[in-house]
Structure formats: C-alpha cells, structure tokens
C-alpha cells in the first residue's frame, strides 16, 4: 500500500479550520448496487474552549446524485441519512459502524460522501464539530469496487456542513392556578422544502396538538403567513389542562405549507417521552418552573419520520 502523507489526506489545505481526523471505509458491491460506508473512528476532535466533555456521533449521507437530490418539481425526495451511536466523553471515539446506500454504478462518478461529526450536547442542541466530503470520482474504482478501502480525512468546520433541517422557536408557560398551558409559537427558520417552494415561498402555518397519553386532547393552529421561508408567527395558543394530565402529556407541533393542500414541512414533539433530548428538557423546565416561560429552538424532524 502506498504511503499517504499528511498533505494528501482529504480536507488538508482546504478552507476552514481543521478540527480532527476521521477514519472511514468504502466498499461497492456491484451485484446489489450498494455502497457500504464504514465509520471507523475519529481522532483529536477539537471543540471550542469551555465547551466541556464531548459526546460525538457521525451523520452520513450521499450528495451530488441527481436521483437523490431535491427535484425541481413540487414533490419531495426522501433523504437517506445514517447516524452512528453516540460515544461518550471522548475526543478519540471508536464507532465501527457500517451503513449501506443504494447507488447505481453510473452515479459513482458524481457521488459525494458527506460525513459530519457532532457533539450530542444533550442539554441543548447538537453542536457541529466538523465534516468531511469525499468525492468518489477522485478515487480509483479498483480501490473500492468489490473490496474494502480504508482512508483517513481531515475534518473541517465550514458552512458546507451546517444542516438546513428547519427549526422552530417555541415558548411554554404553565399556570397551575388557572390550569392553562400557553404555547407561544414565535418563528420558524431554514424550512426544508422542495426546490419549487424555495423559489416561490408558500403559505405556512403551525398546528399544535396536545396529547394526554395516546389520546388527542386538543388541537389549535396559528394564522397563516406567506412570502417567506423564515415565517414569524408570534402567536400564543392556550390549552386548559390540570398538572396531573401534563405529567403524561405531550405536544406535537407541525409546520405546514400550502401546495394544493397543506403538507408537513417538519414536526417536533415536546414531552416527557420525546425522542429529542431538547424536547424532554423543555417540558421538564416548564413543569418545574410554573408561570415562568421556558423557550427553546427545536430542530424539526423530516416529514417522513
């Protein structure tokens, strides 16, 4: 195997701060048109001073393939993003994870392997550590077609690795004396919409549903906003519920946009059993501090989830 020098590693010398290295593997299986991506380990991860212990994980996706990209039509193409497990309190995590992507052989010449490392930072939102793009056309096919190819690249922290997943800012306040839950829907930003609507911003609104256990308790909606991908709502929706119900309750907030009918642009769930740690935390803060606003930006999950 030929010697690889530091300045030959992917990511070296590119714009952006170098924040560590990522070791990965590739194997293309022609019989099934499968690209198998291994996330092996990272080393010497760097985070801002004072950020504390790092709990890293990696998101992996394929870009640069027309069939996987956003269409110019009004239809949405499902994104395939794989995520490793979180490795706790380490700057040199070992992942040893493998993910399969269905990728036609002809697309290998345009495909870009997109790998992004995050610090899970459970009390808040995940923090970007750095990312690495590998353009497959730069690798000889004989290196990874029908065999496993291992390589290391430098992680960089640039705008290329900032995800446009959509976010919603919401403030919760509970008044136990009045038994009223106030949901202040402030604004949304970076909405992940089909390409047509990025050029022609649609009408948007937010639907808020209160569930108690598995039952739908009440649903309310904001007014419609139009002409922007970063809509400001600034509306407070009130729900009547005693605290005993809120202990087992949850809120589902869906951002919707109007095509021929209203469609989902993403959602977030707030409550004790929410999948996102930030959703659980905001609910706890609301219950623990009656009459005090508990506000947070929440990441919207994709409509497919």
Describe the fold and architecture:
It comes from Dibothriocephalus latus. This is C2 domain-containing protein. GO terms for molecular function: calcium ion binding; calcium-dependent phospholipid binding; clathrin binding; phosphatidylserine binding; SNARE binding. One of its GO terms (biological process) is synaptic vesicle endocytosis. 8% of the residues lie in helices and 45% in strands. It starts with 16 loop residues before the first strand and ends in a 6-residue tail after the last strand. It is globular, with a radius of gyration of 22 Å. The strands form 4 sheets. It has a 4-stranded antiparallel β-sheet, with no helix packed on it. It has a 4-stranded antiparallel β-sheet with strand order 4-3-6-7, with no helix packed on it. The protein has helices spanning 141-144, 195-199, 243-246, 277-288; strands spanning 17-29, 34-43, 56-63, 81-83, 94-102, 112-119, 127-135, 149-157, 167-175, 180-189, 204-212, 215-221, 232-240, 249-258, 262-270, 294-299. It has 305 residues and is mainly beta. The longest helix has 12 residues, at 277-288. It has 2 domains: 18-161, Immunoglobulin-like; 164-301, Immunoglobulin-like (Sandwich), CATH 2.60.40.
């Amino acid at each position: 195997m030929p010697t690889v020098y530091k300045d030959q590693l992917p990511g070296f010398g590119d714009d952006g701060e170098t924040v560590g290295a990522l070791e990965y593997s590739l194997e293309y299986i022609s019989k099934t048109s499968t690209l198998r991506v291994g996330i092996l380990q990272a080393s010497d991860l760097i985070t801002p001073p004072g950020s504390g212990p790092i709990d890293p994980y990696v998101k992996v996706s394929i870009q640069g393939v027309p069939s996987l990209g956003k269409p110019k039509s009004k239809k949405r193409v499902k994104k395939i993003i794989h995520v490793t497990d979180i490795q706790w309190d380490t700057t040199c995590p070992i992942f040893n994870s493998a993910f399969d992507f269905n990728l036609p052989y002809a697309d290998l010449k345009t495909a870009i392997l997109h790998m992004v490392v995050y610090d899970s930072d459970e009390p808040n939102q995940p923090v970007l550590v750095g990312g690495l793009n590998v353009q497959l056309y730069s690798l000889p096919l004989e290196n990874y077609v029908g065999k496993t190819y291992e390589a290391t690249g430098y992680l960089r922290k640039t705008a290329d690795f900032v995800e446009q997943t959509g976010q919603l800012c919401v403030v919760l306040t509970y008044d136990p004396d009045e038994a009223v839950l106030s949901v202040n829907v402030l604004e949304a930003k970076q909405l992940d919409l089909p390409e047509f609507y990025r050029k022609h911003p649609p009408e948007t609104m937010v639907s808020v549903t209160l569930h108690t256990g598995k039952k739908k308790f009440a649903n309310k909606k904001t007014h419609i906003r139009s002409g922007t991908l970063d809509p400001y709502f600034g509306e407070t929706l009130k729900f009547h519920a005693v605290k005993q119900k809120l202990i087992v309750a949850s809120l589902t907030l869906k951002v919707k946009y109007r095509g021929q009918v209203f469609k989902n642009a993403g959602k977030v769930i707030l409550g004790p059993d929410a999948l996102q740690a930030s959703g659980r935390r905001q609910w706890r803060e609301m219950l623990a501090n009656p009459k005090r606003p508990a506000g947070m930006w929440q990441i919207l999950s994709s409509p497919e989830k």
